[in-house]
Automatic annotation (TrEMBL):
It comes from Brasilonema bromeliae SPC951. This is DNA-binding response regulator. Residues 19-135 form the Response regulatory domain. InterPro entries: CheY-like_superfamily (IPR011006), NreC/VraR/RcsB-like_REC (IPR058245), Sig_transdc_resp-reg_C-effctor (IPR016032), Sig_transdc_resp-reg_receiver (IPR001789), Tscrpt_reg_LuxR_C (IPR000792), WalR-like (IPR039420). Gene3D superfamilies: 3.40.50.2300. GO terms for molecular function: DNA binding. SMART domains: HTH_LUXR, REC. The keyword Transmembrane helix does not apply. Keywords: DNA-binding, Phosphoprotein.
Amino acid sequence: MSQDNTLRLNLPANTSVLRILIVEDDPMMQLGLEQSLMAHPQLEIVGQAEDGYLGVQAALKLKPDLVVMDIGLPRLDGIAATQQIKAALPETHVVMLTSHQTDTEIIAALSSGADAYCIKGASVERLLSAIAAAVEGATYLDPQVARRVIDNLKPPSPSGNTANLSQRELEVLRLMVEGLSNPEIAQKLYLSPNTVKTHVRGIMNKLSVDDRVQAAVVALRSGLV
């Protein structure tokens, strides 16, 4: 990942410094992540680990705000490591990096409890968007991952009232699929953050889903966006 000091990280206003743990076994990728993230004053790298087992240990010791987690790790893969971290530290956000190698890997990543899913080696800007969305409480799904998921998931439940979404809810849903956080959606649509939260809850209820990733998948699979 190349370093670009001109990129901005749009974190929530109440976030001062985000403490990050990097779990990555490739030394060059680890260095690239460290250099890219350290370019931003709101981000602090508090630790690094080379495998999933050490990643879990480091997370339990350091209690970072966010973990950047590779999937293909030795000893304990990133999916299992994420599950253990989220079980012990539910407030810790996890951004999963996938090499986009197999459909099975992607589907498993979606069930691990991670908050964001990026293609390994993607642009710094995309990684920062994933981090910002995760911290906001949104779920970021890389467009390339979304397409593979759509091809492998069952059609949306017939109980989902996809036709009952209002025009405003469809607008919000399109921006959710793009990975925008609630404040970013609010800014684009000239709405208050609380209004956006209300729309997001309404969308998930109407689509019969439990989180934003599922909402995005249903939206793409159904051709809503």
